Sequence to fold (361 residues):
Amino acid sequence: MNKITRRAFLCGSAATAAVAIGQAGKARAQSSLTQSPVIRVAQSQQVLNLYSARHYDTDTALYDSFTARTGIRVNLIEAEADALIERIKSEGANSPADVLITVDAGRLWRAEQDGLFQPINSQAISQAVPANLRHPDGLWVGLSKRARVIMYDKTKVNPAELSTYEALADEKWRGQILVRSSSHVYNQSLVGSLLQATDANRTEAWARGVVANFARQPEGNDTAQIKACAAGVGSIAIVNTYYLPRLAKSEDPAERAVAEKIGVFFPNQRDRGTHVNISGGGVLKTAPNREAAVQFLEHLVSRESQAVFARSNNEYPVVEGVELDSVLASYGRFRDDAVNASIFGRNNPEALQIMDRAGWQ
Fold:
């Protein structure tokens, strides 16, 4: 597997990589003048160009197993989602990218709005992945799930006090809530899900109540919220599930001690269920190797690959019946909100406006 890392992409060597890809394409084009059409097609299908915003080294096992199964090599370019989307747009019809993978349905929506995807027609995917985790028109498919939950300091909070996302606006939590910035798509999608469940007025009132209950101005990522909770800065945090198992399995005793202090609560179990978001991928409209791209996504939703998502990055599989990571499983089973993940992106602009008006920085 060839790989261009996020660091290389963002520090400028992505330009070199693009030149390299362009030179390789030029060489292939020149040599193809003397080759038969059958040979040209066969050779073009031996490489799949993947643009991915997932930055987990453990995903390499997924790409290697795809190559072992199909003989198709994965050429990986990693960067942040917005940078990848802009790169695909700038490359236009000549983009070498076959598949875009990113985290959060909100970012998939951004790519969808820019017209980057083409429909995926795959019975294997439709049968494996529930409809709410796929785009209604087949433009992308969920590959893994992560729940956005309430984590709490077990020495200060009785989980019987917790119930719903909506209840976090109650003044009894004044000065207790830890959460990252509104600029992050994870929170934007959470607010988008609340918009779908209620309406704009009630969602804005909720956001204002949550802001009033902040323990501090938002700073840092989800791991920072968990650590601040354990340190007593606040007593509850709104975070994605997979961050806590990372701390629980850390080689650093201090991080394991943090995890020991934190409990996990799944909100809204008596009504719509806990907000769940996805990592997902789609086939690009300009994909040179569309057939290989569909094969690749089918591979990622196979039970074999879903087990890798679950074991390696503490995520929930999108396919039912796949065994969870043992630490993640220890937090318990829960009912997840069955709203289609495409709603989070559709509601994203309004969610951002609401958060801005509420003073959620």
